Predict the 3D structure of the following.
Amino acid sequence: MRLLLITLIALSYMPPKLWAGEGLVPLQFEEVLRGDSFHASGKQIKLWGINAPGARHILNFTASLYLETLLKAGTVSCKEKERQLYQCFVNEKDIAEDIVLFGLAEDISGHYALQQAQAQREKRGLWNSPVSDEL
């Protein structure tokens, strides 16, 4: 059990380039749709593994603006993880990881469990919102 925990912690600190793998396709960012989806190179991209607040949630605008800021920070590249769900990177950094870490989306895959736990501990974003938990 201790070895598993140490391995998980070590993997979370590995540079994305080591685990991003093959199949990344560079995309030209166009516009954000909501905090976990955007248009790029004529395609609608939904980020794999996370769920951001919906249109009626108080943090929707914040999550959308943060995603736009991340996407404008450098080169966007994505790989399809599941049908129409993509893991995306900006300058080789996982976008969804940052969004979950700042409490602006919920981890629904288990892949970002450590980041969500940290956001919950530090009462960031969704984990500090006095509004309903409806995403």
